[in-house]
Fold this protein.
Amino acid sequence: MQIRPLLKSATFRLAALYTALFTVSVVGLLGFVHYATAGYLARQTDAAIATEVAELANRYRNGGTGALAREISNKSAANIGGQSVYLLTDKEMNPIAGNIDRWPEPVAPDATGWLEFQLDRGSNAAYPVRARAFTLGNGLHLLVGRNVFTERSFQRLIAGASAWGLGIAVALAIGGGFITSRMLAKRLQRINQTAHEVMAGELQQRVPIRGADDAFDRLSLNLNRMLDQIQDLMDGVRQVSDNIAHDLRTPLTRLRWRLERLQAGDDPDGTLLDQAIADADGLLNTFHALLRIAEVESGSRRRFGRIDLSDLIDDVGELYEPVAAAHEQTLVVEPGEHIRTLGDRDLLFQALTNLVDNAVKYAPSGGRIELAARETEAGPELVVADSGPGVPADERENVLERFVRLETHRRSPGSGLGLSLVAAVAKLHSGDLLLEDNEPGLRVRMTLRTEESV
């Protein structure tokens, strides 16, 4: 793998961010540990020195130089382990009392007045001392300190352990980041590979799902659903093309034959001209229906609003009541009571008119047609039923496709697009379209679920 593409990759940046955050967290943790251990010991040492300074200052105020010298001598004699350092000198730095024989080499105090120096005890034995120095009122000099060898050793131990811990943590962070980035890169590579295969024409390819139910699985699931939708649309386009070539060839051939006869002047009463115009109108209506279905399926015709399905049922029933009466059929309208939902009223009106028009067309004289709106647990439901010949159970899915018509209905007028438009409208409203046996006849139920999806 080349370096520049790796450095520019999102997985590398994610791994670097992970490493940086992990390192900062470890540094903060180690800093807290140092503050809580070595820092605590150093603060204890400073507090002990400050306490002894306060005691000696109090003795000097109460008893003078002699009392101070005796107190220092007593403390020096009691300091068996050599942890404390005391020295009282005169103006010329000559020792008066204490457990060291000379004032240490000149060392500049820090900003807080503390001195740190090495105290030589002979035999190459030296240890660090932290002390405070004071000049008394009569020119005497006082030095009080403590051996901090143990504290310094512990601090070096903590610092070394922290350095090793930080190094190990950084190494683990880099390793973990690398492993994580490799895992992410592999998951992304699978998605990219599937995308390349789909672009190469293999529309059946899908992104593999590991079953971990993580963000990548959910992304893969959504991508697969999108690919299913694309494949369905492509299959629909292919099917539409095949159906157009098959179903429109006959009316186009018939139209051309009539035009040829018109060109030859073989139409003394104008019958052929009327038939040619009717054929052209039928073709235009077919293409208009196809465009309407495509518009609905694409979602561009989505003008949802709050509608009353009961009023919609009343309007469709009022429109088709005289048509049903002309065919000596009974139209029963059950609008329900103010069943409201979100939807496109015009599309639902057109879907219902298509269903009722089919019911009127195929129901016999004296038959019964039902038009109803109901409230169900799944959502509002529109129902159109008739007492006609119905649709066989094994054909109910097929008749929802474009240009599909039953053999018994091929001689009746129509293009086979009515139910396709109804199915597209139901899908736009996130609903279900069910074709059932009405015993006799066909019952069509359209359930709407737009309340949940909007």
